[in-house]
Amino acid sequence: MMKIRMTLAAMAATILALASGLEMNAGTPKVRTGIEVLEARGFDGLKGKRVGLVTNPSGIDHNLRSTIDILSNAEGVELVALFGPEHGVRGDAYAGDKVGDSVDPATGVKVYSIYGKFREPSQEMLDGIDIMVYDIQDVGTRSYTFISTLGLVMRACAKKGIEVMVLDRPNPLGGNKIEGCNVEPGFYSFVSEFEIPYVYGLTVGELAIMINEEGMNRGQNGYEPHLKCKLSVVPMEGWKRSMTYLETGLPWILPSPNIPYPQSAINYPVSGIAGEFFNYLNVGVGYTIPFAVFAAEWIDADALKAELDNYNLPGIAFRTIHYKPVGGAFQGKLLHGVEFYFTDYEAAEISITQFYVMQAVNRLYPDHNPFVVSESRIGMFDKVCGTDYVRKAFSKRLEVSDMIDYWHKDADKFRALSRKYYLYK
């Protein structure tokens, strides 16, 4: 299994290559995604049907052709409707912005928003559709809303008897990381739609099958009847569970503005929960390395690094960093803190890292308790964690030992369950 050692020079090279449009790996990619497999099969399952498509700019082939354009030009396939999740089908809406209905100028196909007034297609939007295709690059962490959109689309289609076809793509974290407790009753939401761990180790196709077969698709309140849809998955060719995204040879198209690089997807579960707090730590959003740092104006970077080094966290190392964000709430402020790197990605427990950082910050600066300085974000913290137990246990002393067993309690059981739905070794 690959061990990631991302040096500053390697990161700089990665950014340069991505920014200049160069492919990270020359030649034919090792992996063919679902859309390419579907095309090679002559669009079997779509020919002669009126097709709806849920996608965004990450839905491409290795030559950067959009799935929208591929299906629109496919002989015998009638693309009749597009459905825009967060950020829209062409990526022209920023994070959190409501998406409106429109017409796609390139194809003339009607675009329906499912990130605005509606979070799932209405039954009227589905009129005239024979099959719904889903093609979005997943991020691999539960709190990203694309898998929630998938589940709600599956529910809407189940009500109308419409088949759903998922075009599979890699999990950028690989297929072996499973971390965090399951979502609990009372905490289902658009950022915690299913009873799965925070990091779930499945491709979007595998997850769709599991949701469908295990009765998990119960709507955002978690208490509605499970609706099972007619589901098909077009699997990838060449993907292995041990692969992170850079190993696939595929180009990375940012699925959302704050996930610009494949490494950003890996970094997101390391710092994203801590980043939910306002007036606390900047995690790199608004700077060039989103989710790769923990910093604030009032932090002594050397002291924070020393405290974290004392923890001897497996597979992860820290260096001091000083920077000024170019956007967001910390724009123009000189921040001090740490940047993290994986010395052994396989050994690292990625999602627990942010709790150790909060512990270290609290030991050094007890007046900056996130649950006090950003009290208004407690509800979102609970939603993202999928439970209030983590907050209640952790906020008393901000010591990881008070919550780590609970955070890990569901991982082994979920791993055993999810193996039934593996499409790849």
Description:
The chain has 425 residues and is α/β, with parallel strands linked by helices. It contains 13 helices and 10 strands. Helix 4 crosses helix 5 and helix 7 packs across helix 8.
SSE series: HHEHEEEEHEHEHEHEEHHHHHH
Summed up, the helix count is: 13
Strand percentage? 5-15%
Per the principal axes of the C-alpha atoms, what is the gross shape?
globular
* Mean pLDDT over all positions: 92
Keyword list:
425 residues, alpha/beta, seven-stranded mixed β-sheet, three-stranded antiparallel β-sheet, disordered N terminus
Structural topology:
Elements: H1 8-19, H2 34-40, E1 50-55, H3 67-72, E2 78-84, E3 102-103, E4 110-113, E5 131-135, H4 146-160, E6 163-167, H5 204-213, E7 231-234, H6 262-271, E8 293-296, H7 301-309, E9 316-323, E10 335-342, H8 353-364, H9 370-373, H10 378-385, H11 389-394, H12 404-408, H13 411-418
Parallel strand pairs: 1-2, 1-5, 2-4, 5-6, 6-7
Antiparallel strand pairs: 3-4, 8-10, 9-10
Quick structural gist:
This protein has 13 helices and 10 strands.
